[in-house]
């Protein structure tokens, strides 16, 4: 299967760069099969998000770039909004000669980080190539950057409690872990709150900002309340644990642009800090709530897999 070959190469590259596929408390690596489960399925969805564009069908055995496929003819699509050249996005081009300034891939390009957590990616005819294989669509789709588009996902958790006591699951006998979940406005899917890392911004700042904006509606709070929320978030986010960093199986991915993220866990052990806050959806969130973590969840992109790694590290119910 293509999945095994791609995953094996990614694991080897990340070991070389000393960037483990997964890292959390008590979890330093995962098996190859666990990596396979999280890679590159939603990135081949038939209809591209927020459009009527159909991807060129890519079967499992043709995803790997190492497999020859002379008939591969991906659809070329970049969202109309990006063609208007917004300031936050890269310029469109069909040849590098069209650009006034050549993009510096695989390195820090001014304030824009074009490095990948997976290691060095290939450039074909001046365009970056998705390290996880074919997607059936070239161009940038909805993504602002050619190559890796970096995001940050804060996973804020607490133990589920009733009458002050931690709740255990009837079947597993293990405590139930809850996380702050948002319902995305664009596709109505439940997800971990998060967002894009701004040029020149530290990931730690992105994690704080996105959590405040999406789950506490901090942008619309009075100044006094906003400052209090900021202080609480800063306190909670002082000690986080890395759950995942790398490629994300995102439906927006293309052959030339893809999502990567850093997912961090911030756990409120007693439930006395963020666990008591009144959650309010803001920014890109249509709804927000504390959600039990369980196997049957179908969350956006690779988010279910991130939570699975966290549950195993904390020996919680799955």
Give the SSE layout.
Layout: H1 2-16, H2 32-38, E1 75-78, H3 80-83, E2 108-109, E3 112-113, E4 123-124, E5 127-128, E6 137-141, E7 147-159, E8 161-162, E9 165-166, E10 177-184, E11 190-191, E12 195-196, H4 203-215, H5 223-236, E13 241-247, E14 257-268, E15 285-292, H6 303-314
Parallel strand pairs: 1-6, 7-14
Antiparallel strand pairs: 2-3, 4-5, 7-10, 7-12, 8-9, 10-11, 10-15, 13-14
Relative helix content: 10-25%
Rounded average pLDDT: 85
**Total of DSSP H or I helical runs spanning 4+ residues:** 6
Radius of gyration: 20 Å
Oligomer: single chain
Separation of the first and last Cα atoms: 28 Å
State the shape.
Answer: globular
Structural class category: alpha+beta
Strand content: 15-25%
Kindly describe this structure.
The chain is of the alpha+beta class and 318 residues long. Helix content is 20%, strand content 23%. It has helices at residues 2-16, 32-38, 80-83, 203-215, 223-236, 303-314, and strands at 75-78, 108-109, 112-113, 123-124, 127-128, 137-141, 147-159, 161-162, 165-166, 177-184, 190-191, 195-196, 241-247, 257-268, 285-292. Strands 7, 10, 11, 12, 13, 14 and 15 form a seven-stranded mixed beta sheet that branches. It has a two-stranded parallel ribbon with strand order 1-6. A two-stranded antiparallel sheet has the order 2-3. Helix 1 (2-16) crosses helix 2 (32-38). The longest helix has 15 residues, at 2-16. It is globular and about 65 Å long. The protein starts with a helix and ends with a helix.
Give me a quick take on this structure.
The protein has about 325 residues and is α+β, with helices and mostly antiparallel strands.
């Amino acid at each position: 299967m293509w999945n095994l070959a791609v995953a094996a190469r990614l694991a080897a590259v990340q070991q070389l760069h000393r960037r483990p596929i997964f890292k959390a408390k008590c979890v330093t690596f995962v098996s190859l099969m666990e990596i396979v489960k999280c890679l590159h399925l939603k990135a081949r969805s038939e209809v591209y998000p927020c459009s009527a564009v159909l991807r060129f069908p890519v079967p499992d055995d043709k995803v790997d770039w190492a497999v020859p496929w002379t008939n591969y003819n991906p659809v070329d699509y970049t969202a109309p909004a990006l063609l208007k050249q917004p300031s936050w996005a890269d310029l469109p081009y069909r040849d590098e000669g069209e650009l006034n300034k050549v993009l510096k891939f695989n390195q820090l390009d001014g304030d824009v980080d074009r490095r990948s957590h997976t290691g060095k990616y290939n450039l074909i005819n001046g365009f970056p190539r998705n390290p996880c294989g074919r997607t059936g669509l070239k161009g940038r789709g909805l993504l602002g950057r050619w190559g890796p588009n970096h995001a940050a996902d804060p996973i804020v958790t607490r133990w589920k409690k009733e009458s002050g006591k931690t709740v255990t699951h009837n079947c597993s006998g293990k405590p139930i872990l809850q996380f702050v979940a948002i319902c995305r406005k664009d596709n109505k899917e439940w997800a971990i709150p998060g967002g894009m890392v701004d040029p020149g911004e530290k990931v730690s700042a992105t994690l704080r900002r996105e959590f405040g904006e999406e789950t506490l509606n901090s942008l619309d709070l009075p100044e006094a309340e906003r400052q209090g929320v900021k202080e609480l978030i800063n306190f909670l986010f002082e000690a986080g644990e890395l759950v995942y960093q790398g490629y994300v199986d995102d439906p927006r991915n293309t052959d030339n642009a893809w999502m990567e993220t850093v997912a961090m866990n911030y756990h409120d052990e007693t439930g006395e800090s963020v666990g008591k806050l009144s959650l309010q959806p803001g920014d890109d969130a249509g709804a927000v709530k504390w959600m039990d973590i369980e196997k049957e969840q179908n969350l956006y992109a690779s988010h279910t897999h991130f939570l699975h790694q966290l549950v195993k590290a904390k020996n919680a119910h799955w």
